[in-house]
Structure formats: C-alpha cells, structure tokens
Design goal:
0% strand, 14 helices
Length: 281
C-alpha cells in the first residue's frame, strides 16, 4: 500500500524494519563511538589533555592536517578538470578516463601505497635517481601526500560528473556565443552551478584524507613525530598499550568525522535538489 505522498506502508513489517535498522546502527556505529570517547576519558580530563598535548600527538595532528590541506585542493582541481572534460567534450578515450577515475575505489589502499614504493623506493624504478639527487619521497611528507591523493582521487570528480551531465552545455555555449572567454565562462557560469556539489565532494574527500590508514602506512615508515599521521599514531599507541593515548587520538578522528557528517547533513538539507541531481546516474 502507498499513501498520498508516495511512501509505501507494509503493515506489520514497518516496525520490524525500523527496529532492526536502529539496532544495527546502534551496534555498528553508536556503540563503537561511545567506546572511543568513554575510554579516551577513562582516566579523567587531565590524562586526556596530556595525551593530546604530547609532542608526537601534536606532530601527528599537524601532519594529518598538512597532508589533507595539500591533497584535497589537488583533488578538487583534478575533479573539476576531469568532470569538465568528460561532460563538455567528446574525445577518444573518455571511457578509459572514467575507468581510471574509479580505479582507486576498486583497489586496496595498501596497493595504492605500494605503487609509490615500487616507483620511488630505494629499490624502485626511480629510486637510484632520487637518491643521487637527494630527493626523498618515501618515508616523507611528499609520499604521504601522493598516497592520499591517489586514494581520494575519485570523490570530487564523481560528485561533479553526474551533475554537469544533467546540466548540459547550453549555458556555456550561450556565454561563448556572446563573446565570453573560457575562464570567464567557467567562473561566471560553470562554477556557480556546481559550487555546492563541489563543496560536498571536498567534504567527503577531506574526511577520507584525514582518516586514511592503509596507503599512508605503507609509505610512512612509521617514524614517530615525523611521518605518523593521526590514524598511524593511534596504531602506534595501541601497540604500546597506551590505551588512553590511543583512544584520545581516535576521539579526535571521530570528532572530525562527526563535524564532516554535520556539514554533509546541512548541505543535503539546504541544497537537497542540487545534490540529488549530482548523484543521479
């Protein structure tokens, strides 16, 4: 049965589905989240703050923010350029480009990190040249950025491509006919039409960048205070049986995730129509 607003009613089953959904979300999401914050503050606020202020923790926080601050804008620029190319032009190899954009979704993050080791490690394809010219990528911030960029590459592009396909090219064609240049057309026509979907993709990309573990673990070397991001710092502390410190760092990651979720929800509520169009296939 369906009512006037189009929703479907299944007598007797609806309460069961709602209860099951709430129970599953409670066990898989709320309970772990509660555990993280409970254990982080298990020895009091003082111990929690001491764990956050510890030099290695501060270095991990700075490195995480630095990597995200570099990789997210790079992927935003790439995502806009790729979406523009795919939706506004016809060219040979378009399907192959779309496949490459989706590739990081289908391969393990560990493999994404291993790729850079095979290329830029000491025994890699370019390792000897890098050593000769004193250029360090693996076990350095640059390696972490490369690994993060690869893992988060599809997020912005995949938010923009469906929206720009739905919008078509009529407005850009009209602007060009009236004498507007390429950059003017992009900044005055295209960018305003995609700005909220772009921000949505950037939020998702940023959340993944700050929480990435597998790829950065391979290229980092786990050098405490130098190449350990916040997720890696959590692992190091947990393996050292410093549970308060580990859960304190994990609570920061959880808080960043919650902030991202709130911003994502606000965007979906305020611009639901445009964001729905951006995910229409």
């Amino acid at each position: 049965m369906s009512n006037a607003n189009g929703s479907v009613r299944l007598p007797g089953l609806a309460p069961l589905f709602v209860t099951a959904s709430v129970a599953v979300m409670g066990v898989l999401v709320l309970l772990p989240l509660y555990t993280v914050f409970h254990d982080a503050f298990s020895k009091g606020v003082g111990a929690y703050l001491a764990a956050i202020r510890e030099p290695d923790a501060l270095a991990a926080i700075r490195l995480t923010l630095t990597v995200a601050a570099i990789s997210v804008p790079l992927n935003a620029v790439f995502g806009v350029a790729a979406a523009w190319a795919v939706t506004k032009f016809e060219f040979r190899g378009k399907s192959f480009l779309l496949t490459l954009i989706d590739l990081p979704f289908s391969i393990s993050p560990v493999v994404s990190g291993l790729v850079w080791v095979l290329l830029f490690g000491a025994q890699g394809w370019f390792g000897a040249w890098l050593i000769e010219h004193d250029v360090k990528i693996i076990f350095a911030t640059s390696g972490l950025v490369l690994a993060t960029v690869l893992v988060t590459l599809p997020f912005v592009a995949r938010e923009l491509i469906p929206l720009m396909q739905d919008q078509g090219s009529d407005e850009e064609a009209a602007a060009l006919t009236l004498g507007a240049g390429g950059f003017t057309t992009f900044f005055r026509i295209t960018l305003p039409n995609i700005k909220w979907a772009l921000l949505y993709g950037v939020l998702l990309c940023n959340a993944r960048a700050m929480g990435e573990f597998g790829a950065v673990s391979v290229v980092s070397g786990h050098i405490r205070g130098q190449t350990t991001t916040l997720p890696l710092h959590v692992e190091v502390l947990y393996n050292d049986y410093d549970f308060v410190g580990a859960f304190a760092a994990a609570s920061l990651l959880a808080s960043l995730g919650l902030v991202t979720l709130v911003l994502k929800t606000l965007l979906e509520w305020r611009y639901s129509g445009e964001l729905a169009a951006s995910r229409r296939h």
